[in-house]
């Protein structure tokens, strides 16, 4: 399930790189002539066996299929995108996504009217390093070098902002620190709740406020003094109205370290797991 693909104009800017990395998540593609469709897919940077190509004139009937959720359209016309949007599908459009101003406005108006974003209710991001894994001499502990847990594992903040498509937080609701044993000005751990405005990235007004908790710890105690908490590799949980999405180890998705993206459907209780290892992506793109 893709809960939110982003605004139409941002998708266009992302272009090929999004196509390359997101292709496996796409369900259908549209081609002007069914006969030429395989050739079109073959020219893609990373042809995916998961993409089914349909004659674009069939978009309305194809989009009636409930399991299809995203339509990738690489034509400079909005009419097919509008049909897909009318069926409640997300659309991924190549530039220019419309032939003229009026058509562009129709696409945007249709998207705003039909796309139902799964509203984000809250997020929780965590990243910890086991006690003794960072020696006392490390720059991460030095106040003059901007040391401290939140400064070092800032991924908890960047992932939160990514999930919420948000700019800087509106306010700090609470913040609890555990000072470093070597310098109390440096946070060894930080546990904070921030309020963000969803959609406020790059100066946008945004839509609604969301509470986000983050926990960063550079000297996390082992369980029973022995077991490092490997499950606290950088992880973010994003709770939406319909799902709980967990991205485990999103910064270092290597096979050795393991990672996953879990999507739990709140209605059915079912959880779907997927992995996107860097090595696999690299191999596929060579
Ligand atoms: N983007 C990413 O994925 C990652 C980013 N990082 C970031 O990279 C940075 C370096 O981390 P890491 O390589 O592990 O650290 P290292 O301890 O290996 O390197 C630290 C560097 O800082 C220099 N240094 C030490 N003291 C001072 C000082 N007082 N003034 C100026 N320079 C100093 C050292 O130089 P000298 O040898 O001369 O003492 C050394 O080159 C950190 O800021 C970290 O947050 C780290 C890991 C991953
Ligand atoms: O950037 C980083 O990524 C890996 C962490 O273990 C490290 O402390 C941090 O600097």
From TrEMBL:
Alphabetized InterPro entries for the sequence: Gfo/Idh/MocA-like_OxRdtase_N (IPR000683), Gfo/Idh/MocA_domain (IPR050984), NAD(P)-bd_dom_sf (IPR036291)
Transmembrane segments: none
Catalytic activity reported: D-xylose + NADP(+) = D-xylono-1,5-lactone + NADPH + H(+)
Presence of keyword Oxidoreductase: yes
Gene3D superfamilies: Dihydrodipicolinate Reductase, domain 2, NAD(P)-binding Rossmann-like Domain
Protein name: D-xylose 1-dehydrogenase (NADP(+), D-xylono-1,5-lactone-forming)
Family: Belongs to the Gfo/Idh/MocA family.
Pfam families for the chain: GFO_IDH_MocA
Keywords: Oxidoreductase
